[in-house]
Amino acid sequence: MSRRVAILVSGGGSNMVALVKSMTGDHPARPVLVLANSADAGGLVRARELGVEADHVDHRPFKGDRPAFEDALHARLLQAEPDILCLAGFMRVLTEGFVSRWQGRMLNIHPSLLPKYRGLHTHARALEAGETEHGCTVHEVTPELDEGPILGQARVPVLPGDTPDLLAARVLEQEHRLYPAVLRRFAAGDRSRIDLAA
Ligand code: GAR
Hints:
It is built from six helices and eight strands, in the order βαβαβαβαβαββαβ. It has two domains: 1-102, Rossmann fold; 108-198, Formyl transferase, N-terminal domain (Rossmann fold, 3-Layer(aba) Sandwich). The protein has an eight-stranded mixed sheet with strand order 3-2-1-4-5-6-7-8, with helices on both faces. The chain has 198 residues and is an alpha/beta fold. Bound molecules: glycinamide ribonucleotide. Glycinamide ribonucleotide (GAR) is lined by residues 9, 11-15, 88-89, 109-111, 136, 172, 175.
């Protein structure tokens, strides 16, 4: 039976596009909703172009009342009856209340080799630390930020002359390989870890 996938985005949604495009043929899942926290998230337009229902729940009217925002997000998600939630550049921190409702069914992609560089500015921090290797991680979401069982990682070399932007672009290419590969396995009930090298 095909698993129903909802994808949460805040920005341009290039990972969302990679996920949606991967769910064809004999894939064990299909996209049922792309949901953003703002009407102007570029990912919404791209999702509709790909024929996927897209909607937003604006976080701003909730003015710091995170649980109320999450209740609205949850209610909208439920309408699509997803089995799996993929965070794809979703830049709102989720509370334990929301996470516990989806735990075991929610994935996130993070632009570092976790447990290194949780949080923001991961590429600049990796460069500052003199890393020779960097990458991205797909993990199950648990209440602690960027924690949770790791389902896959992809590594890239850090090259001489790299800037945060150059490194981000090299990592993003790998994100587009890794996230679909992990989702395909996860949707089929396989939580074994994937490791990709550039
Ligand atoms: C991606 O690099 C993703 O790993 C990162 O945001 C970018 C979204 O790009 N996510 C985080 O930093 C989460 N903390 P996209 O909108 O083009 O997929």
